[in-house]
Specification:
heterodimer, A: mainly alpha, flat, B: three-stranded antiparallel beta sheet, 12 helices
């Protein structure tokens, strides 16, 4: 659960939170492109570091660190897999350069996680749903999306209640091999699913009672408007992609190993 | 003028053998505060679902007899059309709020019927103020207490400006204090905004004082229907197992001991007043 906390929106006010989700999304995509373009450590480290001021500005440092900690397990796997495969198949001159390359791949992964987490930590799902709606995604899908997010904490709480109830009747969740452990969770999952179905029926009833589907042209309480700040971010993103492509095409990036041991 | 009228209304759920209620004849006047009560499974929730067309449109099944609500026949008009006239508040506050902020939730119905944005804004603010949750408008529903969530549910129904609000056990998930404040809000809607209220409720101790009329159902039929002070005295109400308000029981006990309080009380305030009256008149 702790890793997903890093993706859960918390409503705080900051300049980053106020940026239009569409602009933020373009920024995330630009970062994504840049991170995929490079496989050298130096540019990836730069991409990693330029985001830190954003995290601080958005006041989500704690959640963000938790997410990075959650991702570190996967990062370690990526690092080890890279070292092993490069050692046998890479044809790299020295162990140091192998490690540097593996490290670069790991940093790339963290940059991707980081950029998405900034997006989700600073964009209310409501706003995200709204931006989907405004770029023309049918309302039913946007509604399904925001409702799913709204019910995550509710279902998490319910799962905990069911676990407690089943445990108090003597259900053992720990112990045994993997198959045994999976089977242990069946008494948790069945009531959880049945409850979710029942809940969805009640929700449907409440939606119907509040004029769901009354009008083809549904209006919305909020409307997203792009401001100058949002256009700035989009321009910055485009420049970032252009600069990365330029560097990638015309500049040979030295590796740290080369700098240290020329 | 009757705002809800049914004659010989009978409904059977799909795959059910027996009807959920049978031959219900009901006439509810505009502006009335009706308290509907009875043991679980007596058909009161089912009856409520007929008022806005969830029955038969959502549930299917077999609805016989006549029903007219706010001049419309729920059988012939879609639920979304009925929703403008009849607001339904459900038992579990958690399962009737979908949005991620309170404000957005209250706006949900208005967005559905396609009102212009400034009109939505006006009505949302109004509904939030009437229910006293304007300060919570940017919070997420799951952060709120049960009582606050139920207020949001009431506000979102109220924003549609319906003529009738039907509340199906709105306090059953709440502690007594929040229940009391919810009932007070419902009372205000009825008194100040002249909205017809149909309240399904087991907590008669808290709700009785606000009702103009009490209807008691049992096994799919209306057993008693009338002025609360009269209905609660009826032997049948006690036998069905309806939780007669404690003040009425105290009244009856005193009556048994030969002390006549004059009128049947519906709230602790009323009975204490009558007792003081009796005591002072005894002394003089």
């Amino acid at each position: 659960m702790s890793m997903f906390d890093g993706l859960r929106f918390r409503n705080v006010s900051s300049p980053i939170h106020r940026i239009d989700p569409r602009a933020k999304f373009i920024y995330v995509c630009a970062l994504f492109v840049a991170a995929v373009l490079f496989n050298q450590l130096i540019p990836l480290l730069i991409l990693l570091l330029i985001q830190i001021p954003l995290v601080v500005m958005a006041k989500v440092v704690r959640e963000w660190l938790r997410l990075i900690r959650g991702a570190s397990f996967f990062a370690a796997i990526i690092f080890i897999m890279n070292v092993i495969s490069l050692y046998f198949y890479g044809g790299y001159p020295s162990l140091a350069s192998i490690i540097e390359h593996a490290l670069a791949m790991t940093v790339r992964f963290i940059v991707l996680v980081e950029s998405f987490s900034i997006f989700f930590l600073t964009t209310s799902p409501d706003m995200f749903g709204l931006s989907l709606e405004q770029i023309g995604v049918p309302y039913e899908f946007c509604f399904a999306f925001t409702t799913a997010i709204r019910f995550v904490p509710v279902l998490a709480e319910e799962a905990q209640t069911i676990i407690d109830a089943q445990r108090s009747r003597g259900l053992e969740l720990e112990g045994g091999n993997i198959m045994r452990r999976i089977r242990n969770y069946i008494p948790i999952l069945i009531p959880l699913i049945v409850n979710a179905i029942r809940r969805s029926l009640e929700l449907a009833e409440a939606m119907e009672s509040r004029a769901w589907g009354a009008s083809k042209k549904r209006t919305n309480l909020y409307v997203l408007k792009m401001g100058s700040r949002d256009y700035c971010l989009i321009i910055v993103s485009i420049l970032m992609v252009a600069a990365s492509v330029y560097v990638w095409l015309f500049i040979k990036i030295p590796s740290i190993t080369q700098i240290l041991w020329p | 003028m009757a705002v809800i009228e049914t004659s010989n209304l009978t409904y059977t759920y799909p795959f059910a053998e027996k009807p959920a209620f049978k031959d219900v004849n009901l006439k509810i006047e505009r502006g009335e505060f009706v308290l509907l009560t009875g043991p679980s499974g007596c058909g009161k929730t089912t009856l409520c679902r007929c008022f806005n067309g969830l029955i038969p449109h959502f549930y299917g099944g077999n609805l016989e007899g006549e029903i007219v609500v706010a001049g419309l026949k729920p059988t012939e008009h879609p639920i979304y059309e009925m929703a403008r006239h009849v607001g339904l508040v459900f038992q579990n506050p958690e399962n009737q709020l979908f949005a991620l902020t309170v404000e957005k939730d209250v706006a949900f119905g208005l967005e559905n019927i396609g009102l212009p944005r400034d009109e939505i804004r006006r009505r949302v603010d109004w509904a939030l103020k009437v229910t006293g949750i304007y300060d919570l408008k940017d919070r997420a529903p799951f952060e709120l207490s049960g009582g606050q969530q139920q207020r949001v549910a009431i506000a979102s129904v109220l924003a549609m400006q319906p003529e009738i609000i039907v509340l199906d056990e709105p306090t059953s998930f709440l502690d007594p204090l929040s229940a009391k404040s919810i009932l007070e809000i419902i009372h205000r809607l009825n008194r100040d905004l002249e909205i017809t209220v149909i309240l399904v409720e087991h907590r008669l101790d808290l709700a009785a004082r606000y009702a103009d009329r009490v209807i008691i159902m049992d096994r799919g039929q209306i057993i008693l229907d009338g002025e609360p002070r009269r209905v609660f005295l009826d032997e049948r109400a006690r036998l069905i197992g309806v939780g007669i308000p404690k003040v009425v029981r105290l009244y009856l006990m005193l009556m048994g001991d030969g002390i006549d309080l004059g009128r049947v009380p519906l709230s602790p305030e009323e009975i204490s007043e009558s007792i003081v009256e009796v005591l002072t008149s005894d002394r003089s």
